Amino acid sequence: MSMDRRKFLKIAGLSALVGLGGSEAFELLQPGALEASEGHEVEGGAKKAHEEGPYAGDKIRWGIAIDIIKLGENPAMAKKIITTCHYEHNVPNWGNPKDEVKWIWEDDYEHSFPDSYNDLMAEKVEGMPFLLLCNHCDRPPCVRVCPTKATFRRPDGVVAMDYHRCIGCRFCMAACPYGSRSFNWLDPRIALKREGRKLNPRFPTRMRGVVEKCNLCVERLDAGKLPACVEVAPDIMIFGNLVDADSPVRKVLRERVSMRRKIQLGSKPSVFYLV
Amino acid sequence: MYDAGKVIIGLVIFFCFFTFAFWYNMGKAAPAPKPKLDTPVIKKMVKKQCIEGTHFMRTTHMQLLNHLRDQALRQGNRWYTNKRGEKVWISLQNTCLKCHSNKKEFCDKCHNYVGVDPYCWDCHFDPNRSKL
Ligand code: SF4
Ligand code: SF4
């Protein structure tokens, strides 16, 4: 782009005059550049917000449907799923909410769906256990704000973490509307050691000062395996390709009523709750 | 020059003091490290070879590891085709450390010798969990 100083000053002055914010002024100076810089890491992963239909242009878009009715019938499974995931990824248990690190956890309806909570709810719904995890949003706000691209969206829709790059600024934690991310305030190995727990030798731990979250078992997906939570509870966690109309997850979504968390925010979660 | 004698003596003392570490350690060079290759998995191998040649691995493993890390994690392509045309699953803990399960006698030997402390081990750990 070539622009002499005079033109730059004119536009800058004009922007200031009409009170344009940073991004609008940027658009004026270099149309399209901002949009481009928010594209995704991998070639082919880039997706325009305006494309028609859900997942248009994608071949694979992993998603999970969680059967809340089945989970309610067998509430002990929630614990089992959490333990399996946290073993698989060496997620420490600090035993206090201040230092807590979690990839998948349990909460009630009120806290899972605060926007659709009624004052006078059916008791059955109110007491139901909900399993919460990173939604691997189709338009992930956490990815938009990460200054180092430590968190990024893969072409298959997994919102992945590159801990080698994370500088621990926690912008992503502020951006995520679902509380899916945890910060390692302390060296996670202290807690793992204190617990005296068996570690999964196939997966690393994290270090102090990085943010972590569910990675949709990307290391297992790449090896052609199912996510650990799906493997341990295949009738509660239904996994599949949201683009493929014949995938198990699409089948069950066709047949059952489902909800997603805070869809009005536009982040497009890929985790569905079957009710 | 005033007090030339004192100044020169001072300089000599300073010089000796400054280069003390060199005098003291003269002729006592630390022996080159000998990383051990006698892990059970390596012992069982018919042809004892790493994913690339020994010389290449010795000089370039850091760049290769960085490159493979980005390929696996950021591009989601977890297979590395080496110069012999073989496909290798990219994973520090599941591939490299499967053979080199003796981090203390292998990785640490040279790293300590040259005084580097790579941050790999802040998160990754060997089967013997020497750091946990
Ligand atoms: S749930 Fe939160 S962390 Fe996960 S992709 Fe969405 S915004 Fe990011
Ligand atoms: S804490 Fe890490 S992942 Fe989150 S925004 Fe900062 S650098 Fe990115």
Structure description:
In chain A, 32% of the residues lie in helices and 13% in strands. Chain A is of the alpha+beta class and 275 residues long. Chain A has a four-stranded mixed β-sheet with strand order 8-1-10-9. Chain A has a two-stranded antiparallel sheet with strand order 2-3. In chain A, strand 4 and strand 5 form a beta hairpin. Chain A is globular and about 70 Å long. Chain A starts with a helix and ends with a strand. The model of chain A is unreliable at 32-46 (pLDDT under 50). Chain B is mainly alpha-helical and 132 residues long. Chain B has a domain at 33-123. Chain B is 49% helix and 5% strand. Chain B has seven helices and two strands. At the A-B interface, helix 10 of A face helix 4 and helix 5 of B. Residues 145-148, 150-151, 166-172, 211 of chain A line the site of one iron/sulfur cluster (SF4).
Number of strands of chain A: 10
Number of helices of chain A: 13
Please summarize the sheet with the most strands of chain B.
2 strands, antiparallel
Shape of chain B: elongated
Secondary structure layout:
The complex is a heterodimer of chains A (275) and B (132).
Chain A: H1 5-18, H2 22-29, H3 33-37, E1 62-67, H4 68-73, H5 76-88, E2 104-107, H6 109-112, H7 123-126, E3 130-133, H8 141-145, E4 151-153, E5 159-161, H9 171-175, E6 182-183, H10 188-195, E7 211-212, H11 218-221, H12 228-232, E8 237-241, H13 248-255, E9 258-259, E10 271-274
Parallel strand pairs in A: 1-10
Antiparallel strand pairs in A: 1-8, 2-3, 4-5, 6-7, 9-10
Chain B: H1 4-18, H2 20-24, H3 40-44, H4 54-74, E1 79-81, E2 87-89, H5 92-99, H6 107-113, H7 120-123
Antiparallel strand pairs in B: 1-2
Bound molecules: iron/sulfur cluster (2 copies).
